[in-house]
Write a structure and sequence with these properties.
With 265 residues, the chain is of the alpha/beta class. The chain contains nine helices and ten strands. Bound molecules: adenosine-5'-triphosphate and magnesium ion.
Length: 265
């Protein structure tokens, strides 16, 4: 039996107003149209599709960073679109995000230690600053960085190391669900594999659930349980990794699969 979904999305739609020409009627860009899916606890759903197909917009709505035009999002069976203050705080702990660009997503003025303990302090994790720092050092070990990193600044690290720091920050508040929006596409190919291995190991250890947004179908084959293919704001195909790779039903998916060079094995 598949476990109950940790996250469900029903009829999610997002329209952005387009800039309006004088006297012209209001025009809209429908970035996401009537999207529905469930993500079983502990699994990875890959959201793939061409640039502009609406993937990040879906991720931002799940995280409460964009409000949907219509539709519903359920977390552990409960609607989360209009959370109370306390619910919002809980959700910020439960759901975390890792973005593509590890240069832009870390605060350059904060040490790694400050970056990793900030969320813990907000969510009252750890009894003291000292205990939070110990937890931060442990998180660094889990992402294969030395605890010496605590006193250093983001510019002292490589892209791959920064992405490990961003992952450690996401983990610092003990989330159960993580949106990974192209987390490896800014990295060198050799480093991409290491970060993917890390994400996979952390998922197995902590029972995390991932929404993995990517262009890279190699990554999908490696990490995902299920795939949803987006085109022009809609999910046009959805299934297990095997089914989509072996027998894509939509021409669009076939084009996507052909467009990406696949590494053997
Ligand atoms: N704030 C916004 N205002 C207006 N239009 C937007 C806004 N955000 C996104 N869009 C439009 O919505 C569509 C979907 O954008 P989105 O960023 O979700 O695509 P994506 O699939 O993540 O693309 P990529 O693979 O390039 O990251 C695009 O046409 C984009 O231009
Ligand atoms: Mg995007």
């Amino acid at each position: 039996m598949t476990p109950a979904p940790i996250l469900s999305v029903r009829g999610l739609t997002k329209r952005f107003p387009l800039r309006r020409r004088l006297l012209a009627p209001r025009a809209w860009k429908e970035a996401v149209r009537d999207v529905s899916f469930d993500i079983p606890r502990g699994s990875t759903l890959a959201l793939v599709g061409e640039s502009g197909s609406g993937k990040s917009t879906v991720g931002l709505m799940l995280l409460g960073l964009l409000s949907p035009t219509s539709g519903e999002i359920l977390y552990q069976g409960k609607p989360i679109l209009r959370p109370t203050g306390r619910e919002r705080l809980n959700l910020r702990r439960e759901m975390q995000v890792v973005f593509q660009d590890p240069y832009a997503s870390l605060n350059a003025r904060m040490t790694v230690g400050e970056t990793l303990t900030e969320g813990m302090a907000v969510h009252r994790i750890g009894q003291s600053a000292r205990e939070r720092e110990e937890r931060a050092a442990e998180l660094l070990r889990q992402v294969s960085l030395s605890p010496d990193a605590l006193r250093r600044y983001p510019h002292e690290f490589s892209g791959g190391q920064r992405q490990r720091i961003a992952i450690a920050r996401a983990l610092s508040v003990g989330p159960h669900f993580i949106v990974l929006d192209e987390p490896t596409s800014a990295l060198d190919v050799s480093v991409q594999g290491q970060v993917l291995n890390l994400l996979q190991a952390l998922q197995a250890e902590r029972g995390l659930t991932y929404l993995f947004i990517t262009h890279n179908l190699d990554v999908v084959g490696y990490l995902a349980d299920e795939v949803a293919v987006m085109e022009s704001g809609r999910i046009v195909e959805r299934g297990s990794v095997e089914a989509i790779f072996d027998q894509p039903r939509e021409d669009h998916t076939k084009r996507l699969l052909n467009a990406i060079p696949r590494v053997e094995g």
